[in-house]
Amino acid sequence: MATIILGIETSCDDTAAAVLVDGKLYANVVSQQLEHQTHGGVIPELASRAHVKRIIPVVEAALSKANIDKKELTAIAYTQGPGLLGSLLVGNAFAKSLSLALEVPLIAVHHMQAHLLVHFIDDEFPTPSFPFLGLTVSGGHTQLVQVNGAASFNVLGETKDDAAGEAFDKTGKMLGLPYPAGPIMDKYAQKGIAKFRFGKPSVEGLHFSFSGLKTSVLYFLREQQDIDPNFIQKNLFDLCASIQKSIVDILLEKVAQAMAETGLNQLVLGGGVSANSGLRNALEITNSQVFLPPLPYTTDNAAMIAMAGLLKYLENDTDVLSSEPKARMSI
Q: What is the pLDDT of residues 7-28, one digit of tens each?
């Protein structure tokens, strides 16, 4: 009998549902909340209200695309955290209700673990083997993790302030780019030359810091605009290329250090920033074995929640209906 997992993701501003049948992805539906773009960032209250409106249609669309009746489901996996509490509550309540109604197990999934475990979907891309070094890079997180097994994660280093994705968005805002700035900066960077240099943080161990880079960019732009008010417009592509290279260099330096210290030669990427072409290209020329997620799996999605849920289900690691969402969770 097939093991059919419904995954539900509502950690931030994307409402998503996916269906996984014996490890193979049958459906992965994502509804993006584009209304946040006009505010320059995600508004938590708007996000949670949008999840309430969209979660039923999104789940129905996923089941329909997979040609699966809800009564065939083996278990329901949902994002427990970390994320926006209001958004997480919507997914938590829906998953509990469906689990109770169908009398199937409920599986709480850690969002950041799922970003790395998405690589185990039975698909057409290579799968890493345990143990491996995981680099999760997104708008809210930047972490280096030693992954010893599907349920064994050891954080080696993480950001002390801004995450890598946040650094892209905040410096992009300084350049006058709309939110989210990261994908636009990546596109413009491919047309420019990284000819500007910015301050590089000095952080102990395998931890990261991006606030100093952000400040360095701010002061540099102020100085140049005092000389030429049109400096940003004249050098936009080169500025994007320079900022992107600075962020990528910070990440690569810590990755190299982590691999040297752990002896691991497999690097697995996860998170929205793993879609960045500068980061992907830089990693592909390293001596390590690099696993890059397909672009649809880089941003928040339910396929990764379903995959992580399947791995937990196979270990009989399910949850009771009293489990609660958590805005902050250690990996």
A: 999 998 889 999 999 999 999 9
Assess if residue 70 is contained within a domain. yes
Is there a single domain that holds both residue 244 and residue 259? yes
Question: What domain range is 305 assigned to?
Answer: 4-124+298-314
Question: Do 155 and 100 share a domain, yes or no?
Answer: no
> How far is CA 243 from its chain centroid?
20
Q: Are residues 65 and 141 in the same domain?
A: no
Q: What are the backbone angles phi and psi of residue 194, rounded to the nearest 5°?
A: -80, 75
Q: Is residue 219 part of a domain?
A: yes
Number of residues that this document lists for the chain: 331
pLDDT at 319: 79
Domain total in the chain? 2
Of 30, 81, 26, the C-alpha closest to 51 is 30
Question: Is residue 145 domain-shared with residue 286, that is, in the same domain?
Answer: yes
Scored b (16 or more CB within 10 A) or e, 28-51 reads bbbbebeebeeeeebbbeebbebb
- Domain identity same for 52 and 114: yes
Q: pTM value?
A: 0.92
Same domain, 170 and 64: no
Burial track 81-119 (b if 16+ CB lie within 10 A, e otherwise): bbbbbbbbbbbbbbbbebbeebebbbbbbbbbbbbbbbb
Which residues, in sequence order, are CB contacts of 133 under 8 Å at separation 6+?
144, 145, 146, 147, 156, 255, 258, 259, 262, 264, 266, 267, 268
Q: Tens of pLDDT along 235-288?
A: 999 999 999 999 999 999 999 999 999 999 999 999 999 999 999 999 987 778
Q: Give the type of residue at 191.
A: K
HSE, CB side, 13 Å, CA atoms: give it for residue 182. 25
Residue 12 lies in a domain: yes
